[in-house]
């Protein structure tokens, strides 16, 4: 079952148990009936606000303390709360992907016979996510009086960091599509935000796990930045992680044959 199929199931249950209340899609699924322009706008705004939270909290943390551990704690805590709220708010509109790997993974499952975004919809999502990420980084810099665009000098090209991105992204895809397969997408706001918060600490890369966010973070030379030269490696490993995550979903949530 894809994210969208799970949402359809949840909507049917809500309609049966709450007369007079319109059906609401589950956060984390892709609602099939909202206009594409509304969904693309939700992806743009959601990704922009997510990057603004990540970059802005990083700037605030470095201005309040010189302790790197406390800086990372502040940055990860703000990201957890911000991401959870954004998924809860915008999930019923666009599915709250905010992430090209998630969008392409759902497009892949749709092309294999499931429900999900089409290639045209995926293209609109990806453009909105990348534009939103860049806008979010610029917005965060503007709020703290930093240069609006200043390429990051924070090199993140070491091999162990790239491995961290594979692990972080694979776990994210396993979580999202595992929730969809088990009809538990209603827990997506808490589950996904919690996973990202944990991955800040247990992965060497601090869990970017998102090509759009990675691109946006190259536009700011602050705590959360990443040097443009590190982008190809990080983004490449994120897509590798996405493929690994889908393979794990297929293996772990393999459907058995129906009983005769």
Short note summarizing the structure:
The protein has nine helices and no strands. The protein is mainly α and 260 residues long.
Quick tags:
mainly alpha; 260 residues; disordered N terminus; single chain
Task: Provide the fold topology.
Blueprint: H1 3-17, H2 36-64, H3 68-94, H4 100-111, H5 119-143, H6 159-181, H7 188-202, H8 211-217, H9 231-252
Helix pairs in contact: 1-6, 2-3, 2-5, 2-8, 3-7, 4-5, 5-8, 6-7, 6-9
Description:
With 260 residues, the protein is mostly helical. Helix 3 (68-94) runs antiparallel to helix 7 (188-202). It has helices at residues 3-17, 36-64, 68-94, 100-111, 119-143, 159-181, 188-202, 211-217, 231-252. The two termini are 21 Å apart.
Main sheet makeup:
none
Percent strand equals under 5%
The secondary-structure class comes to mainly alpha
User: How many β strands by DSSP?
Assistant: 0
**What's the order of the H and E elements?**
HHHHHHHHH
Which residue ranges are poorly predicted, with pLDDT under 50 across at least 5 consecutive positions? 1-27
* Gross geometry: globular
Distance between the termini: 21 Å
């Amino acid at each position: 079952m894809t994210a969208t199929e799970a949402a359809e199931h949840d909507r049917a249950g809500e309609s049966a148990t709450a007369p007079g209340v319109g059906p609401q899609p589950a956060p984390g699924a892709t609602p099939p009936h909202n206009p594409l322009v509304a969904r693309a706008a939700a992806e743009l705004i959601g990704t922009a606000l997510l990057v603004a939270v990540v970059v802005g909290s990083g700037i605030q943390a470095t201005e309040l303390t010189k302790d790197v551990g406390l800086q990372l704690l502040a940055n990860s805590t703000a990201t957890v709360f911000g991401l959870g709220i954004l998924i809860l708010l915008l999930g019923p509109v666009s599915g709250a992907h905010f992430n090209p790997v998630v969008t392409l993974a759902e497009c892949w499952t749709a092309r294999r016979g499931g429900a999900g975004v089409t290639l045209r919809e995926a293209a609109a999502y990806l453009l909105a996510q990348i534009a939103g990420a860049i806008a979010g980084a610029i917005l965060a810099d503007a709020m703290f009086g930093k240069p609006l665009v200043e390429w990051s000098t924070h090199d993140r090209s070491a091999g162990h960091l790239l491995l961290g991105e594979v692990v972080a992204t694979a776990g994210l895809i396993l979580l999202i599509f595992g929730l969809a397969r088990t009809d538990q997408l209603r827990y997506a706001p808490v589950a996904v935000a919690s996973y990202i918060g944990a991955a800040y600490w247990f992965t060497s890369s601090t869990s970017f796990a998102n090509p759009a966010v990675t691109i946006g973070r190259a536009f700011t030379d602050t705590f959360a930045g990443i040097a443009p030269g590190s982008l190809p490696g990080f983004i490449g490993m994120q897509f590798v992680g996405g493929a690994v995550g889908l393979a794990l979903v297929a293996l772990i949530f393999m459907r058995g044959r129906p009983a005769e």
